[in-house]
User: Fold long-chain-fatty-acid--CoA ligase from Sinocyclocheilus anshuiensis.
Amino acid sequence: TLKFLLIFLFMILCTLLYQPFLCRTPHNPLRLWFPHFWKDALFLMRVIRYGARLEIYRRTSRVVTVVDRFVQQAQRIPEKAFLIYEGVTYTYGELEERSNRVARVFGDAVKEGDTVALLMSNEPDFLSVWFGFCKLGCAVAFLNTNIRSRSLLHCFRCCGAELLVVGADLLETLEDILPSLQEDGITVWCMTQESPRPGVHSLLDQMEEASQEPVAAERRSVRCLRSPTLYIFTSGTTGLPKAAVITHLQALKAAGGFWVYGATGSDVIYTPLPLYHSAASLVGIGGTIELGATCVLKKKFSASQFWHDCRKHNVTIFQYIGELCRYLCNQPTNEKDHRVLMGVGNGLRQDVWREFHRRFGDIRMCEIYGSTEGNLCFMNHIGKIGAVGRSNFFYKLIFKYDLVKYDLVREEPVRDHSGFCQHVQKGETGLLLSKICSQSPFFGYAGSKQLTEKKILRDVFVTGDAYFNTGDLMAEDEDDFICFRDRVGDTFRWKGENVATTEVTEILGLVDFIQEASVYGVQVPGNEGRAGMAAVIVRPECTFDGKKLFSHVLRELPSYARPLFIRLQESLEMTSTFKQQKFALVESGFDPCSISQPLFFLDCSEKSYVPLTSSVYDSIVSGQRNV
Assistant:
């Protein structure tokens, strides 16, 4: 707290001392040597101001949570539009009353500290159920609507949920595991008027009969910022989704994102991202509540409807991932007849960034870097194209992070003769590590301490220190701008989703003709992230069957996790510790002209993996064939 206060006072002093000098001298040393000083100062003052509020919560044990803020806004501006969904407007007061009904339905069924699971698409009742259970003192687990069968069952078991609310449109996804859920004692409720099948309760009819009066505020009261409020599932290196623990501290930090970027209560925020991800729920909905603004919620992103929606609802801010902006740039028409001023998101490539500005106007694109479970966040408040964040002297005093040398072949940080990691030089690519301390805690994953421990690097620079391993390769240039380079390890990102290679490998291993598989990501020109590829060894007594493999991955894996390319191998290279060596495979890509082994491509029109010929390859890299 003292450090925050001193930095804050120092920046104010600099402002007072240099302001007259700046007014008199257009070409002064401060402008030449520190061109971003004033933007940095304003941005950091807002960050420190917001952080001071959280520090007050910590010291007084009187935490005002995101749901508390929602209740406050509902009392302050009950008639203001909070959510616009499919043309229907829901006010703060209406959503408050509806969430109260949910709390009343389950008031006697759950107790403070219980965990409930939520499997719903983007819709207003996602928020009603979420807030309703939070008002009862429960933690809520957001389930990814793309996962199926055993992965979905695993999610319940690792977060300890004993109750599930499922959207009416997603009930069929539970077909295979419903008996197992019931055997485990998990009560299933569906957003329907009548029970859709035996053992599944209907919720909408119960909500209509319930009172809209709020439950006692003491039921949701929180005394510790570090108590869990959500579990958000993220793919990792363990083969199955991991439940990242989201505390009230993390939720409140994320909710301040729009405000720190300068947004106000008069803004209209467009959210086409899935609510089960932290970007939409924590930054989008939480940020809307913090501002007292309006959110236009889209069930699913549509490139053809995007600008129409923005004009119709007078959108001023939209949330994005890099893929979303690329899809918009692929549309045939330019759109500059809108009121959009700012986009907030991550993963925007430089070429798409420039094309986006050319096509759609000088919209301020605000990149945010940070993983769901991570303890570090970067924000590109300057707007430099290609940067994910901006650092400076003051930022480094508050947030402790380092870039260290990384061995891509061994897939581990480089350590010196004393066993400590080595810093990279300015401009050099390194593994991003964030120090775990009281200011930047790491809360890990539910279900297993081993999962949490795997994300921690110890004895990094001195004996006994601990750092969160982001798994990302970054570079920091001479002007303190931070740029993303690549992901390392057993996770890659495709179509805006993290893909765990171990999980895909296990699924492929269930096919009878596959003896062994090594899954990795390869770059496809014109696309963000890396597409899935698998090097496969076929059993000696079998032959490769493209149709059978296609049917298997279609049934067992979400679309973003299905390997687009298959490479047949006679053997797989291993490291000295018997880990699959993927570096050479990743480097060689999927070009049939440079790879002697047979290659196959997932062809949805043929419903099979078909031979990857030179002509097919050319159509992929030229963008004529969608991937």
In short: Residues 37-60 form the longest helix (24 residues). DSSP finds 21 helices and 31 strands in the chain. The longest strand covers residues 466-476.
